[in-house]
Amino acid sequence: MDLKPKLTEKNFYVVFAFVTSLFMLWGIAITMGDVLNRHFQSVLSVSKADSGLVQFSIFGAYAVMGIPAGLFMKKFGYKNGVLLGLFLYAVGAFLFVPASNAESFTFFRIALFILACGLATLETVAHPFVASLGDQRTSDQRVNFAQTFNGVGAVIGPLIGKFFVFGGAFAAMGGLISVKILYVVIGSVITLIGLCFAFVKVPPLTDPHVIATDTYAIGEEIHVEKSLFQRKHFVFAAIAQFFNVAAQGGTWAFFLNYGHDIMGMTDGEASGYFSASMVMMIAGRAVGTGLMPYIKPYKLLAIFAACSITMCLIIAQAWGWTSFIALICLNFFFSIMFPTIFSLGLKDLGKKTQQGSSFIVMGVVGGAVFPYLMGKVANHSVAHAYYLPIICYSVIFFFGYLYPKLNKQSA
Prior knowledge:
Blueprint: H1 13-43, H2 48-51, H3 53-94, H4 96-102, H5 105-131, H6 139-165, H7 168-172, H8 177-198, E1 216-218, E2 221-223, H9 232-253, H10 255-261, H11 267-291, H12 297-316, H13 321-334, H14 337-346, H15 353-361, H16 366-378, H17 389-410
Antiparallel strand pairs: 1-2
Helix pairs in contact: 1-3, 1-5, 1-6, 3-5, 3-8, 3-16, 4-5, 4-8, 5-6, 6-11, 9-14, 9-15, 9-16, 9-17, 10-11, 11-13, 12-13, 12-14, 12-17
């Protein structure tokens, strides 16, 4: 009689705790970028469009570092991949010191790019790493458990901005001093985590994708495997992921501007509501996960995309609290999109799963492009800038709506 497999084994506890913490660390860093977006507008007199280049630096690093990080992980292993990611994360954080001293937006973007190369490395390594820490029947549960801490990090990031950048003793010093001190602390913490992890012994692991099927049967017929880009559901998933992260990056980048320009809030107050919107994202993932046994994931994706379009239409009208609540709720509806698009795109790829994963992860570059475009509109009306994500959610809606047909054509 088979016993129900555990989430992880006792000999993996320490490693599992360390790797799970990585999900929280990059969640903090990503949302801190949105806080910096607004702060640079005030301190460095950067326009809304140009401040969108903060997201270009962060998400652009994912496009540059995704494949090299995967190759490094394959050659040197999970542990060394994590250490490389933490090293780049810390270096980027410490570079905020000379960037602050120079009061240079370009220097800050270079520092953010290096920091984000670390984030991209950690994200590339952490997902298969945590999946390998135990029985492969529970690998999905471990990944979902770890992703919960990514949501926690996304809540913490804006709160750090509220208390250390826009409020408190450090912020009272004015200018970029609070940013410099904050990132020295962040860099020190990341360095300490890296040093501790260097002494952790990682037990032998099993890659969850080693066993894969590369033949596809329909009835009694066996079809020869198609190439990756002949799989229409995969190609559409990669496109949908690009637009998904584009919408997410733009939405978060101008949340604080919306609170300031439309609602008349201080930046600190808007940061508090930004953090609350991240709680809505965690709630959305919980609700979405609970509904998936009853509603097909592709159907739920289409429903949530349609709801996101509705939220954007309300946000763009600038109806005071009604629109602002819609902006907060938008996180609820796009919460399930990244993991759902990811899993639907990888369905039935067999041994090409890891290769397909790399291409879908590169879709994160959408977050590098879209905030700048939204910023161009936001220079005139931050509310009207939220019409643009409707394009993104429409693509995601059609991916979900057409998925059964796309997947059948890929078979």
